[in-house]
Structures are given as C-alpha cells and as structure tokens.
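We modelled the chain as a single entity of 78 amino acids. Its sequence is:
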Amino acid sequence: MTFEIVGDVEQQETIASGRGVKIRSYLKKVYGPGRWRKRKGVATVRLANGKVRRVELHWYEAHGIGKRDFKIKTYLDR
C-alpha cells in the first residue's frame, strides 16, 4: 500500500546496524555504499484511500544517502 508521511517522524531509534541489517547487499547495489542502519519511529501518514492514521514505520538509512524503503509495521490508532 502506498502512503504519504504527514508531519515529522517521532520516537526514532536504531534497531539494527552493521551486520544486523540483513539486506545490506541489496541496499548497496540499489542506493550505493554507506553505513546502513534499520530504524523505526512513529508518524502520522495519509493512506492511498485518503485515511489519516498513526503508524509505526520501519526504514533504512545511511549518512549522505538518506531514508529509504519505508514500510508500515503497525497501526497504532483504532
């Protein structure tokens, strides 16, 4: 499902780095070499159907490359 992040990503923390990032070879091939980290945080997003929801996001990030491959892990509001 596609979505748009509305506002800032809060409560950011690193959940994996270095060898803990399982798809390092994919990230290096697609985006280039970097010190890749898997991160998570909480944000408000607008879904493709127009609904606005509070979610937990996971993504990959490297210095000089930025945040890539966002994924919604959990919906926090009911």
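As a brief sanity check on the tokenised model: The chain has a mean pLDDT of 95. The radius of gyration is 13 Å.
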